Amino acid sequence: MKSQIPNPKSQIVIVGAGPAGTSLAIRLAQENYKVCLIERERFPRQKLCGEFISPECFRHFRELGVFEEMLAAGGERIVETAFYAASGKRVGVPSKWFNDEGGALSLSRAEMDFRLLERAKSLGVEILEEFSVVNLSYEKDEIRLVNLRARDGGAKEVFADLFVDATGRARVLGKLAEKQKFQIPNTKSQISNRLVGFKTHLENVSLERGVCEIYFFRGGYGGLSYVENGLANFCFLVRAGVVREFSSDAEQIIENLIFQNKRAAETLARARPVRDWLAVSVDGFGEKNLRAAENLFAVGDAGAFIDPFTGSGMLMALESAEILAAAVIENSSAETIAEKYKTEHTRRFGRRLFVCSLLRRAAFAPALAQILISALSVGNTPRKFLARATRPREV
Ligand SMILES: Cc1cc2nc3c(=O)[nH]c(=O)nc-3n(C[C@H](O)[C@H](O)[C@H](O)COP(=O)(O)OP(=O)(O)OC[C@H]3O[C@@H](n4cnc5c(N)ncnc54)[C@H](O)[C@@H]3O)c2cc1C
Fold this sequence. Notes:
Blueprint: E1 11-15, H1 19-30, E2 34-39, E3 52-53, H2 57-64, H3 67-71, E4 76-78, E5 80-84, E6 90-94, E7 104-106, H4 109-122, E8 126-129, E9 131-139, E10 142-150, E11 155-159, E12 162-165, H5 172-180, E13 195-203, E14 211-217, E15 220-226, E16 232-239, H6 240-245, H7 250-256, H8 262-267, E17 272-273, E18 278-282, E19 286-287, E20 296-298, E21 304-305, H9 313-330, H10 334-363, H11 366-376, H12 380-389
Bound molecules: flavin-adenine dinucleotide.
The site of flavin-adenine dinucleotide (FAD) has 38 residues, from α1, β2, β9, β16 and α9.
């Protein structure tokens, strides 16, 4: 007989304390579920991300009880995102096209993720930091426990009725489950594992306040915006072949490639990193396996990864956590949770992911980006239509 998973006495284990995992933990704790949140790092930690928090996230922050403190954390309010072709041609997307919240927010992930985690702690979520999930064990078709390795070398097992993979693009639990069940991973939309993301915080940038700028260049694109403490976050995504060409050196890529974008050459001319560069490989956009085992669900990037140029990955992480939380609270078995979650996930994200799969072609081809930016600079209507096609329909 299958266990009846979702009642407040059930133990729910969430792995990964990014916005998806922590917001899910908060939502379930608000309904008195017993939640254990497992995270490999100790917070606050730097995280590779454009750090652009789309204004639709604010509704989530309110519901999660962190809105005021997110706004008070010293980030930059972003009223416009400006896209620049290599020639310097510009097209702007005002944040107010997404909602009337007074702009997006540019805040470091170190701050944002830490504040969410502190909120989860205050609601009684059990938090295991510096523990990585390294394996899992099945009983019949259900996962019974995950094996953890502590940073100091120790080991631990955690049992639960329901497991959530919130480990981001790494999909650690999903991959372990697929391996153990000899399933073929869902590769439908994994078009490439040939991208690398870089990020650091910079001082001395020449950037207008309140604007997030996106630069297209051969083999990739990058985003620049102020965060807290007068620093700016610069994050770029580039084909791995290009990275090899420049010996994986972020500064060489900037000087020799990104500076071919006229606007980037102006804003970054005197910039200096104040931290080490972070780099990660980025593989596969689109929807992944939402349920790799009977009682294992994927949220956030582990469930679907949207292109960074939309600045809406964190929004999708918060939204997917919201719909999984609702499915868990409303339903009484893994089967019904899965049905509800899958249906809602497709309804909310299917169109957005499809639109981005088309726009992606332009993002990595400077000539196409130039044509698109020129075409979109003519009038507001097509630009507004396209920008909103990457966001929730309800807006
Ligand atoms: C180059 C780039 C730029 C981006 N820019 C933006 C942007 O400007 N705005 C935006 O909204 N989105 C952006 N995104 C997307 C955004 O970063 C993600 O959508 C978002 O972080 C997803 O949140 P998540 O909680 O699903 O996963 P993550 O934030 O990746 O969190 C996963 C967590 O799981 C932990 N973890 C991993 N493995 C284990 C393990 N084995 N055991 C325990 N814990 C583990 C990790 O340490 C991490 O804390 C960008 C992405 C990239 C690649």
